[in-house]
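Q: Got a minute? One more chain.
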Amino acid sequence: IAKYTGVESVEHDMCPDSCIAFTSPYADEDNCPLCGTSHWDQGKMQASGRQLKVAAQKFVTIPIGPQLQAMYWNPESARNMRYLHERTQDIFAEL
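A: Always. Here it is, folded:
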């Protein structure tokens, strides 16, 4: 996506059971506070002598700000995004 739009995705660690994201208050946790599952891929940890910590699961987000900027760069897309506002103004004008 970044190659075509300039919008960079952000990767986050998450509980393998999808309970939480290991961000902000949970960033330094080794286990999920809800289910107790390990934050880390146990196979990779054991293979590295417990020195390599690789998240057991990750998820990717695409921040909304850069997405909206990318949409406004395209004139047709920008026009489409103003549709609701323009129609609402038309309705208010008729009242």
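A: The radius of gyration is 21 Å.
Q: Perfect, thanks.
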